[in-house]
Structures are given as C-alpha cells and as structure tokens.
Design a protein that fits this description.
It is a single chain. By secondary structure, this protein is mainly alpha-helical. The protein is built from 9 helices and no strands. The longest helix is centred in the last third of the chain and has 30 residues, at 222-251. The protein is globular and about 50 Å long. The model has no long low-confidence stretch (mean pLDDT 92).
C-alpha cells in the first residue's frame, strides 16, 4: 500500500469520524441515554472504520502477522494496566489521597451494569484506533512511531475539551493519550485484526474501570491530568523495555 493511499485512508477515517460524532450526540439526546452510562460518541471511530473497510477492503488486513495466541497478550494487558494504576495510586497517596475510592451510590446506574456497558464504548473506540489507524501506520513506521502518531491523532481528536480545560490541561491530556497509545501499540502490534482490537479493549477497559473504582474517575484538574500523563508515560516506557528483546529477535 502506497504512502499516498495510507494518507487518503486516514483522512477518510478522520472526516467520517468527525461527522459521525455530532450525529451520535443528537441520537443520544433524543434517546435520552445518560452519557455517564454509555457515551454514543465513542462509536464515532467505529463509523470511520466501517467507511474505510467498505471503500478499501484491503485495509481490513492488519499487515504482517507476527504474533499468534492471545493469552500472553491478556497477561501483558493486565500487567501494563497494573503498572499504570500503581503509579497513579502512589502519586495520589503522596498528594494526600485527593481522589477517594468510588462511592457506588453516586453512580447513575448499578456498578456492574455500568462497567459492562462501558466495554462496548471502549471497543467502539478501539475498532477505529487499533483496527484502522495504527495498523496502517505500522506499514510505514516502527511500533513506537505508530503509537505516538496514533496517540497524537486521538488527543487532537478530543479538541472539543480545549475551551473548558484550557491549553495547559489539554496539552497534558495529549501527552497522556500518547503514552497510552504507545503501550497499546506494543501490546497489539503484529497481531491479526480481531485479537488486536480485543487486547486493546481489554487494556483500555481495565484502566478506565480502575480509575473509576479507585479514584472516583478522577477529575479535569491539572494535577489529576498530570498524574495520568506521568503514569501513562511510565507505563509506555515499561512496555517498550519489556518488548525490546522480542523486537531484537525479530530483527535477526
């Protein structure tokens, strides 16, 4: 696949996802579904992915598959999620435990149901980012560079938070998005499409669930966003160190 075609596919994905997002917001408002239970806009990138796969069926192929089996991937997903949450927990303790454990009474729905529904929202995002964007970038770039670019696109795709959050908080949020994306790239690179999306969903959901349960979902402050960015970068570095021997072996 040529570089020009990759760029066209990525632009198509971004345009369709951007158009789908406000339409999904309208649908959510009309259906009266609480966004704290399930946010419809998480499926915008699914719409982008479907558009890409319809127009370019070859994009459904994840490139060269070098990793098979999923159990080791699940173990790595759990380990990376644990590292990220451990860093967040340590930072929170040193800052006076500003973010307490979740009080389930504050939730808009039963905890089990809410966590179950959020699996679908997370999968909706990962179908686009790990099913289309990262595999395309891997055809031209290393795992690290593919992860960084995917994270930047993900972060920039959340530009709508900029007016409320401010430039500094938004910039730190983008750093956290890049860190998480690099970990996801290490976790999923070289895998077929379905295992790739499944493992990314597993890691993403574990992180989201832990943040909800252990830190009451955090907040939009600079301190929390900085903590998340630190934890994401530490986890990304750890994932790269863990994967280094495998990539050296494959290069030989």
């Amino acid at each position: 696949m040529t570089t020009r075609r990759i760029v066209v596919i990525l632009v198509t994905f971004i345009v369709v996802s951007t158009v789908a997002s406000p339409l999904l917001t309208i649908a959510q408002d009309r259906m009266g579904v609480d966004p704290d239970v399930l946010r419809f806009t998480t499926f915008a990138t699914t719409a982008g992915a479907l558009a890409v796969w319809v127009c370019w069926p070859s994009a459904r192929r994840a490139g060269t598959v070098t990793r098979t089996g999923i159990l080791s991937g699940v173990g790595l997903a759990v380990l990376l999620a644990f590292v990220l949450v451990a860093v967040l927990f340590t930072l929170n303790l040193t800052q006076g435990a500003r973010w307490p454990l979740l009080d389930p009474a504050t939730l808009p729905a039963p905890l089990v149901g809410l966590l179950s529904l959020q699996i679908f929202g997370v999968a909706g995002e990962e179908i686009g980012w790990r099913g289309v964007v990262q595999p395309l970038l891997e055809r031209r770039f290393s795992v690290l560079v593919s992860g960084v670019i995917t994270g930047l696109l993900f972060g920039l795709g959340h530009f709508y938070v900029l007016p409320a959050a401010g430039v500094l908080v938004y910039g730190v949020f983008v750093i956290s998005a890049v860190g998480l994306s690099v970990s996801l790239a290490v976790l999923t690179a070289g895998r077929a499409l379905i295992p790739r999306i499944a493992l990314a969903t597993c890691f993403h959901w574990l992180v989201n669930s832990a943040i909800l349960l252990l830190f009451s979902d955090g907040d939009e402050s600079l301190l929390w966003t900085s903590n998340l960015a630190i934890a994401a970068v530490v986890t990304a570095v750890g994932s790269l160190l863990l994967s280094a021997p495998r990539y050296r072996a494959e290069s030989h």
